[in-house]
């Protein structure tokens, strides 16, 4: 597009997004690959901690079979040594598992800032690089100290990737399929968990460092694929608009929509993004770095469109996703299922739960667009309340260990799997979809970063406390199946949260979401229809804005639009 081209925008609410080609859909879908990191990295640690080679190397203890070559009776010293002594101490297990979340927590928060300065795409590539540095420490480690250093560095990388992939996908995806595409990210998380389980299973019996180094080293592959792919993909046009680089914004929008740069559609969509950004900048001026952060918390919590309300909804959304208890099943399911007594092969157990997770997620691609985010979150929470209460009730009655009732135990396992299905089709993907959509552009990167950090914070809390909730040692709560009453009750809070606080964002552009949150409450949001465009409301549709080649555009036209915004107000 030649420098100096004037774009005007549209007054037609149907035209605020350009039609999309198949190639452009594929571009958007590729970024979902970032979910593999998330899943794989959370998936391999548990398996490695249980590997005999790793335990011997770390603790310096002899293999049980070497120490007791002739006695393999159940009650023998061999059994006692194998189950009670030959293991990584619980404190170190907890440290190596949870330290990743500490890194991801800080990584996600920092990433929001970085993404606003150097761009979404570059931030993800940097995340991959940090991740590789951490991976080198992890692979080289022969003990817990170096492993922990590697875990925390990897965590920072995963934090970057997990937050900014959501941001990037939400900003480039076409509105009609944005929910389904972001759900693709959740699908990749589930595949990552499954792959980690399979690789660990394949190497667990090796009697060399390959047992743990191979599962760790496989991660480099994900980092390389994502970084190389993103190198080729375009930057988010919304980032360029935020930076005032309108010519570059036009070029990348043309690429993500697969349209010629001078197409009227591209100009209209770009004009809408510009007009919305100018409007938001006027409402919440951004002057200093500190103000950029404080902006995330401005306004009244009781006002549906205030920044603080959106930030709190994002943070609570991810907190409630974790408090559904899903990771209790993935992290401690093996121990729990074994204690029920029907399945003794731990790998088979985690394979069942992870497979149910992988196979149920595609359902969300359809329902997140058909019924919307709000509805599926409400239904999903109701489903999980029911499933978890059933598991709890059976667990304290017919399923008790003393009853030795195999049918009851099988029923509990079946309902736990139904519970996973409800999560995988609803809260798993929708929590990510919603945090990518509810923030206005000036605080979007930081808002998504804070929400993602909340996910990792609660993930960490759960991995630290649950062993004590179900533990049977002195001082442990020893809840057994009763723990499902706790998760079920927390799902009641999730249900209430979704009903009162989550707006319906399906089918709207990110700018329309902004407008909708301005004009109606979450409970009425599903019926809201766009009635005006930002270009129209701000006067940009009449005056136009000039694009200049690779320049920061603060042209007379933009200033005029800003003046108009100052004078007009919405709704
Ligand atoms: C959650 C993870 C969870 C995974 C399971 C994600 O959306 O944030 O904590 O392990 O889903 O599929």
Tags for this entry?
mainly alpha, two-stranded antiparallel ribbon, 2 strands, globular, carbohydrate:proton symporter activity, transport, membrane, transmembrane
Structure description:
By secondary structure, the protein is an all-alpha fold. The chain is built from 27 helices and 2 strands. The chain has a two-stranded antiparallel sheet with strand order 1-2. Helix 2 (35-49) runs antiparallel to helix 8 and helix 11 (237-243) packs across helix 13. The longest helix has 30 residues, at 441-470. The protein starts with a strand and ends with a helix. Bound molecules: beta-D-glucopyranose. Beta-D-glucopyranose binds next to helix 9, helix 16 and helix 22.
